[in-house]
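Exam revision sheet. Question 4 asks you to relate a sequence to its structure. Input first:
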Amino acid sequence: MTIGIESCTFEFRDEFQRKSIAEKAISLLTSDIDVSPMVIDGSWGTGKTEFCHKLINLMKKESDNHHIIYIDAFQADHADEPLLTVLAEVLKLIPDDEQRNSVIQKIIPAVRFGLKTILKAGVSHTLRQDSTEVIDDFDEAVKQASDKAIDASVESLLKDHIEAGKNLKALQATLEEIASDKSIILFIDELDRCRPNFAVDMLETIKHTFNIPKVQFVLITNTTQLKAAINHIYGETIDAQRYLDKFLKFSFKLPHKFKENGHEKVQASVAHYRALIKQSSFLQTAELEQRAPFDLVKYIIEINQLSLREIETLVRHIEIYQQLTNKNGLENIIWGYMLLNLFGIILSCIKPELANSVVIGRADAKDIGSFLGDDKIMDFGENRFNPEVYQVLLTMLGQECYWNSDLFTPELEKTQQDWKNRIENYFDHCEPPKKLEVVVEAIEVLTLYH
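Answer key, structure tokens:
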């Protein structure tokens, strides 16, 4: 369920128990410790944006000592100028039009002169340990200029460098003045979704232009993706982590697990799945919370590390399946059939390539085993035979695959009988001759073929 930004609070919902994490982050941002830029790190679909809005609303509720600005970097990506993106939001803090226009006039020279020139003047390039951009510019000018023009080129570069330094200092002084009464905290979201050059330019803008007292930045991003953007811009030989370490002061990850009811730790995605199927009007009469179907989905979520967003997509596919089967596709059904249908839905949603191989009759038992976390049939020994739900599913499907079916075909006669009895129990001894065909039927429902 989507909620508005203003209503996005921990009081409204805190199903993953993240309020205490937000409180600790706020305590750092309001302390005298230099933690800016701070990073809230998380992979795709882990609820970073919602957590950010909840943190902001909590901070506004507890204190009015800061100007808080939220910027969706992905929406600003098209403008291709991070400096203007940030400045435009900061200028909104000045309520008086006349005063705002006065500030704009002060910073226009810096903006007009060009951010990249300013950055060169501000600090030698972060990636270079013992050289400056100015020397590189001199080298480039010498290569391109004729003998007669060398002196003029050098003079021009020197003037540009001096002018850039002046403009940078003027801009920083103006920004420091804006933050003099109330410090500014800027939350930059979705940086990992931006084009690599925009993401890297934003980092460098924050570092070189906004290194100002009482101005703090919080980046809500996936640092793995951010490092990929850095390597895209500067090449794979650059140590992207070392590059980030030069910019970022403190980073923490949103946890994947939390203590449910103060007891055992539960994966956030599993809890999200349970909540969504309970809330869904389409799934009220389905039996998805029963042990076998729930254990199967829970295991697949955990073994494949599905994100919160992927869980929402999965539940939506289950709802669509229910609608297209007249709301009885997963109701009052024998467990074995339900698990096969459910597995077909999961493949169609999460692993479409694998789903396609099943549909065309070229399924590889190794691929299904990899998806379910096993590479061969489970050996339970002589005294114990109590396979997990996913192991029963994998064994019955693996034996029917076009490729590598032998990996999930028991060799010993006793083991063959044990598996046969176990599988029959899942179908009340009315099992279909071809289990993969049931999976195919579920997949075809979602492709609207069936």
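Marking note for examiners. The longest helix spans residues 150-178.
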